[in-house]
């Protein structure tokens, strides 16, 4: 069974790439493991489709002791299913340096050893240079990847793009980046480009993902229809202190998917019925974000949304 890992910072485009890969492999037998920091798996709802065997691992990174045992169990379980490909979408702050150690550790428990093709790292071209020095996991994702996609290239000028490419070459000179928007690459070419030997070329080490280093995650919920304008204001006020905001909400304009990275906020129509509003907020400033969320909810959304 071929195994491909998807890494990349929060909002870089991992779920978009996963959707494209699933569409390309729609006639093949595939399994998917989706990992989220929060207790609610938003990405799982975005990629659900018939015929795909999916496992959702929430409330931590698969490389952190907090849920690593569940990840190991999922890998063992998936190996006994009749699949050709297993695609894994890691959390945005995942440090995958221990991936080969994990696979070696379960070799005697799986049906057959996985054919680990390597990882694809999606880089947010718009925010990469600002975040790189702040977040060690981003460097680790690049160091251990077999292919890299510079996404959101339509939002940056040529000088920024060249600076991003220069940094990528400094960290991992073995790879040639794909330059894209919306992760539009030739999926089959990308998968063929992955070299299993390259996936094992760098010595594994322990992941830096720990219970202590994990970001703060908050789930904002609601059962009633939310005024669209108030919801938009709520998200906009939280965004400067958040790594990522995403989820689904029922508004008077209909159901919407919320996607926010930095100052890029999108409210997209969502056709599927919603049982409730679920909004995930991921931040490095836990107490400050908690206070901000409570303050914003008290203004105009009291009784409509809560943590």
Keywords:
307 residues, alpha/beta, Rossmann fold, Hypothetical Protein Yjia, Chain: A,domain 2, 2 domains, 5-stranded antiparallel β-sheet, 11 helices
Could you explain the architecture of this structure?
- This protein has 11 helices and 12 strands.
- The protein is α/β, with parallel strands linked by helices and 307 residues long.
- The chain folds into 2 domains: 2-199, P-loop containing nucleotide triphosphate hydrolases (Rossmann fold, 3-Layer(aba) Sandwich), CATH 3.40.50.300; 216-300, 2-Layer Sandwich (Hypothetical Protein Yjia, Chain: A,domain 2).
- The protein has a 7-stranded parallel sheet, sandwiched between helices. A 5-stranded antiparallel sheet has the order 8-12-9-10-11, covered by helices on one side.
- Strand 10 (254-261) and strand 11 form a beta hairpin.
- Helix 10 runs antiparallel to helix 11 (286-300).
- It is globular and about 55 Å long.
- The mean pLDDT is 94.
Strand content: 15-25%
What is the total tally of β strands?
12
Q: How many domains, as an integer?
A: 2
What integer is the average pLDDT? 94
Quickly name the level 1 CATH class of the largest domain. Alpha Beta
CATH superfamily of the largest domain: P-loop containing nucleotide triphosphate hydrolases
CATH architecture of the largest domain: 3-Layer(aba) Sandwich
What is the CATH topology assignment of the largest domain? Rossmann fold
- The helix-strand sequence is EHEHEHEHEHHEHEHHEHEEEEH
